[in-house]
Amino acid sequence: MLSALINAFRVADLRKKILFTLAIIALYRLGSYVPVPGVDAAALGAAFANAQGDNPALLMLNLFSGNALSKFSVFSLGIMPYITASIIMQLMQGVIPSLQRMAKEGESGRKRITQITRYLCLVLGVINGIGYLFLFQNQYGMTFSPAMPVFVTSCIIVLTLVAGVGFIMWMGELITQRGVGNGMSLIIFANIIAGFPNVIAQSWQQNIGLTALIFIVVLLVIPGIVLVERAQRRIPVNYAKRIQGRRVMGGQSTYIPLKVNGAGVIPIIFASSLLYFPAQLAVFFNVGWLTSASNALASGPVNWVLNFTLIVFFCFFYTSMVFNPEDTGDNLRKQGGFIPGVRPGTATVQYIKNVLNRITLPGGIYIALIAVVPSILFMFTGDRLIQTFGGTSILIMVGVALDTMSKIESQLKQHHYDGFFK
């Protein structure tokens, strides 16, 4: 990995992309410290720090915002509205026929779906912004500047938060288009990393032995995660020989690579968004029973069971969306390919489906255990380092790092490819 990074900086085009990505992330982190206008950010942050332990859902929302929520900055909403909007759009594609047709139209259809997702993200940003305004005003004693009427100040705060969501969305797309890696994933990666120094210092002061043990366990778990993330089930494929004009085509052997964890970290992000969506509603409506329900969904046995179930479900759901066995079987038939020992057509499609289901189930259980076990340990130890540096955070960071490094290496191969005659 280190040699790949060194080689990447030697290529001018790739070096520009990496520096551009780092510059956008630095700009994003700078925006996390810019408070919204009209409020006392210091007093608000102190009140939030004293009370956030009583609300586990709010604690996780603050983690995914990179501690911007605790400062009530312009980026307080973080990337979660966009992720929630993406989940809604992907679920709707399986229900609304027009969205299904749009998704099959190729690049133009994807552009229209992306545009709808952006608008939906801004709508969710308005709802979340109003909810956070009520929360900080009612529970954390947020006071407005006397220079303007309360209604005007409230409107400015909500518009600032929504503008922050739009700016984050724009920065993520810029990284994806002109930088290295997936922009939204890198922003989540930066948010998680941002909370480590403070949490590590707190854990070290409370219990040095437990902190050292956590680091040892993490160092042992990371190689296992990398191993499973790279694991593949390869289905062999042979191509029959055929004559086109005076040339003999085919007669080759290859394989279809199916990853054990084909969905990556997406199921964890989807499951977390659904489980913490009631917390966002509780913030908006400020109803006692809804707050209790959201806290139950954010931690405890109910959270463990639902989180495990949702992660496994989204593994199957997302894998079925990104990989279609019917299209694969049809393409094999058109190209004269076949799986040894399996009849072409329906039998091939069913065989691919069976293999996909057999490897997706253990892959889903694997990432579900990684996400749930640290939450159980946090329940018994109370060490926030386990929650912050838990399985979900490690899996997201390792997954994003592997994806980014694979894209850097693929671009390096394009620059260092010598050709056939050299």
Structural overview:
By secondary structure, the chain is mainly alpha-helical. It has 19 helices and five strands. The strands form two sheets. It has a three-stranded antiparallel sheet. The protein has a two-stranded antiparallel ribbon with strand order 2-3. The protein is globular, with a radius of gyration of 24 Å. Residues 418-422 have low confidence and may be disordered.
Which short descriptors sum up this protein?
422 residues, single chain, globular, three-stranded antiparallel beta sheet, mainly alpha, two-stranded antiparallel sheet, disordered C terminus
List the helices and strands and how they pair.
Blueprint: H1 2-10, H2 12-31, H3 41-51, H4 56-64, H5 68-71, H6 80-93, H7 97-103, H8 107-138, H9 150-178, H10 183-194, H11 196-206, H12 208-230, E1 232-239, E2 242-244, E3 247-249, E4 253-259, H13 266-285, H14 288-298, H15 301-322, H16 325-334, E5 337-338, H17 346-381, H18 384-388, H19 391-416
Antiparallel strand pairs: 1-4, 1-5, 2-3
Helix pairs in contact: 1-19, 2-9, 2-10, 6-8, 6-13, 7-8, 8-9, 8-13, 9-10, 10-19, 11-12, 12-19, 13-14, 13-15, 15-17, 16-17, 17-19
